Amino acid sequence: MQGLGRALTYIGQHAGDWSGGTLGSRLTNLDRDIRSLIEYEERLAGKVQFAMDALVGLTGIAQNDIVKILTIISLVGIPPTLVAGIYGMNFKNMPEYDWAWGYPYGWAMIILSAIVPLIWFKLRGWF
After folding, report:
1. What integer best gives the mean pLDDT of the chain?
2. What CA–CA distance (Å, rounded) separates 104 from 23?
3. pTM of the predicted model, to two decimals?
4. Closest CA to 81 of 105, 104, 109, 101
5. What CA–CA distance (Å, rounded) separates 95 from 98?
6. Taking Cα atoms as reference points, which of 63, 75, 72 lies closest to residue 126?
7. Nearest to 52 by CA among 41, 60, 64
8. For residue range 56-101, what is the model confidence (pLDDT) as tens digits?
9. Model confidence at 121: pLDDT above 90
10. Fewer C-beta neighbours within 10 Å, C or N terminus of the chain?
11. What is the pLDDT of residues 12-38, one digit of tens each?
12. CA distance linking residue 57 with residue 81, whole number of Å
């Protein structure tokens, strides 16, 4: 549209030389129409850019929520993994292995280490 507008401006300046004056008024109207279309196209491009920016913002918000949930899940899973790793070492001098309730104690530690972060996150309002 910009190129066509420039061409019409040039042709309009020299139309009197070519056509004896009748083409000049038509080219002026065409030039006005093209300028109007250029302004309309710029407004449409602005609206499209606004919609794209809004979509990018909404996508970012959705990704932040997903990353937040994944972070909470991973932070809840780390302490039980640590407890299970410690009790899975099978050293002879670990006193819990000789206890009658050693196995349930290990399970209680694993479950408790998963529940405590969940409660903490819930109290903080993170989920």
Report:
1. 83
2. 98
3. 0.53
4. 109
5. 6
6. 72
7. 60
8. 999 999 999 899 889 888 888 999 999 888 888 877 777 777 788 8
9. no
10. C
11. 666 665 555 566 677 777 878 888 888
12. 36
Exposed e or buried b per residue across 74-109, where buried means at least 16 C-beta atoms within 10 angstroms of its C-beta? eebeebbeebeeebeeeeeeeeeeeeeeeeeebeeb
What's the angle, vertex CA 70, arms to CA 78 and CA 62, rounded to 5? 165
Confidence of residue 51 (pLDDT cuts 50, 70, 90): very high
Distance separating alpha carbons of residues 61 and 68, to the nearest angstrom = 11
Question: CA–CA separation, 56 vs 117, rounded Å?
Answer: 32
Q: Where would I find the beta strands (DSSP E) of 1-127?
A: none
Angle, CA of 80, 69 and 123, to the nearest 5°:
75
Q: What is the rounded distance in angstroms from the CA atom of residue 51 to the CA atom of residue 122?
A: 35
- Give the burial class of 118: count Cβ atoms within 10 A of its Cβ; 0-12 exposed, 13-18 middle, 19 or more buried: middle
At 20, which amino acid appears?
A: G
**DSSP state, 96?**
G
